[in-house]
Amino acid sequence: HRVGIIGAPFSKGQPKDGVQKGPEFIRDAGLIQRLKGQGCVVKDYGNVAFEDFPDDEPIGRLKNQRALVCSLAIGSISGHAASRGELSVLWVDAHADINTPLTTPTGNIHGQSLSYLIHELHSKIPKLPNFSWLKPCVAAQDIVYIGLRDLDPEEHSILKYLGIKTFFMTDVDRLGIAKVVEQTCDHMFLKVKKPIHLSFDIDALDPSVSPATGTPVVGGLTYREGIYICENICQTGLLSAVDLVEVNPELGNSQEGVESTVNAAVDLLLACFGRHGEGSHNPDYTIP
Ligand code: DIR
Ligand code: MN
Ligand code: MN
User: Fold this and answer.
1) Which residue's alpha carbon is at the smallest distance from atom 5 of ligand 1?
2) Is the model's pTM score more than 0.80?
3) d(Cα 80, Cα 75) in Å, to the nearest integer?
4) What is the ipTM of this complex?
5) Residue in 115, 121, 76, 110 with CA at minimum distance from that of residue 98
6) For residues 267 and 244, what is the distance between their CA atoms, to the nearest angstrom?
7) pLDDT grade, residue 72 (50/70/90)?
8) How far away, in angstroms, is 106 Cα from ligand 3 center?
9) Is 152 helix (H, G, I), strand (E, B) or coil?
10) 262: which of 205, 223, 236, 285 is 20 to 30 A away, CA to CA?
């Protein structure tokens, strides 16, 4: 695998400080060396530089609207689609992140990323002064969610209205993660095989594994279920970009909580790029 890494030390998608330190902690946990150790060719592009907007007045419910010009998935999916064309988006999260600026109960941009990106929601997004560059680039039928368990009421309606494929935690309970991933791939590959954009919010995992995050919700994916998703999406050969978001090393209540969260994030990324729990087999090896 050839892997390029970009850190986005950005926290303005939500109100809690600390999440901008996620990239530093993930790098310090040895992400790059470990990717190389499993045979990846890695290029680290460093961090995205973010401008400061001291007087970022909200527009209606929408907070930090000027800084948002770079809220993570909005930028990464737009850029990915600009370079690769139509994408399948796999959104692994406790939350649906599909509020529009008119439905958001919190005003936080991290809860709205997908609404700006979906063609079918374009008419529901008010014209915002700093957003003219932003063109929707994803079709509702090309999105699949896994891990949902904390939606705002309006988000339920939006998902129904758009007919988006969803696997709530109850679906994971009922089907098991293997069937969920199988059906996810069936859905994504129904028409043509498009490059996959995986957005993995660390709060999809259960807070017993990843407590260091801004909006933990009990009843999440196990560590193994998270890894299983990444391993299998890797094996499709179509994984083209991954966002790993919401690691906040200032939360988590203890050093162990932070370490467990950061380690889980690193392990998910390693699984995305070919690591197998079973270890890899050396074809030249002969049993002595
Ligand atoms: C909530 C929280 N639905 C919002 N979203 C989060 O602010 O719109 N996404 N935490 O990961
Ligand atoms: Mn979330
Ligand atoms: Mn999220």
Assistant:
1) 111
2) yes
3) 8
4) 0.98
5) 115
6) 11
7) confident
8) 13
9) coil
10) 236
